[in-house]
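Posting for a labmate who doesn't have an account.
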Amino acid sequence: MEDSDVVGADLHLDLAAARGRNELVRALHDSIRSGRLPAGTRLPSSRSLARDLGIARNTVADAYGQLVAEGWLTARQGSGTVVANRVSTPAVAVPTLPEARSFRYDLTPGSPDVSTFPRGEWLAAARKALPAAPNEAFGLGDPRGRIELRRVLADYLARARGVRADPERILICSGYVQALSLLSEAVKTQGGTTMAVEEFGYGLHRDVIRARGLEPVPVPVDELGAQVSELSGQGVLLTPAHQMPTGVPLAPERRTAAVEWARESGAVLIEDDYDGEFRYDRQAVGALQALDPERVAYTGTASKSLAPGLRLAWMVLPQRLIEPVIAAKRTADYQTATLDQLTLAEFIASGHYDRHVRRSRMHYRRRRDRLVELLAVRSPEVKIAGISAGMHVLLDVPGDAEDIVARAARQGLGLASLSRYHFDPTPATRQAVIVGYGTPPDHAYPGALDLLCQVLGV
């Protein structure tokens, strides 16, 4: 009996299309996994199989050798090549994850109009930054991030947000969620057990804090922002420029009180500069960090000003947090993507970022004005709040806000209720709907507003 007849004609049919080493490895691998070549089956010699397939003997020998190294085959002198005995493991069904809800018109808050991303300017910045980058920029470097970006950010944050920044105190991270995670871990390593948070905010942020071993503790919010007289614990997360989602800035006297409390208690204030660059009816509210850089850890992100997909954010750290945050960054992902950092550095240095922010501010202000004007005519019973900044407004509605959101969803319109952002929503939670006017592209915005007014008018 010829060697090639050991496993019968089926093997030759399975391998007939194989002409190279990789193709042969895949074909043999599939035959073994499927059970067509059961354990203990002796395979043809490399010479015999090569002759039958019309390929080089070395190709077959190399394929056999790889599968032996991987444990699929065994080869012994005098016994030939045999399919190895392997522990059979049943295939595990992969659960189908629910798809993210998509709407015909999306007015949910939290995202900018990504269709306005400045692709041409970003590409120009990349073309200039990458050829000029030193070779060492493409290796592992400082976990704090590229010095080129940290330098331009120090200048930008000082003039645009009033932040007292030094490149040595800036750390670049992969989005705001990572920034909060690293800071929470640093608070934990310094003995912290709790993190005070505003009673209204993103549930994801509270989940991040919990995942780092801290317990979020809610702080009431009113028309003057967080009630800082209620602060406690070793860390505090605040959105002082534009409270998310109520839209109120932290009152000046409360800013001072929060910093004084941090000095006395030794706690760290984490400033989430949410929508800080998008204020329309007066000059932008400066960063809380300027009051005391040693008590306030400032955080900012490109997610609202450019696009969430960039995954770029930054922190300006108090001296005592630099080392613990760097240590946390090393074990998280070591460093943020270098190429995007270099591109953003050039994008800011060339003035593209300032121009884009100015264009965006005008763009969102026009959208806000159109929304306010239309609601005044078609839904005058709805009270509008939080219009002075950001990319969303709060609508105090008659009736059940959750019912309005559900009714809108059935008609293809995405909205959010205020209770969705509450630490512990109850029936007494303010009945308000949040309308994110930043999200839709221009061509969809008129239709979105028309459907919104229909839903509110029912």
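Reply:
Got it, the structure tokens are right above this. The domain at 117-351 is CATH 3.40.640.10 (Aspartate Aminotransferase; domain 2).
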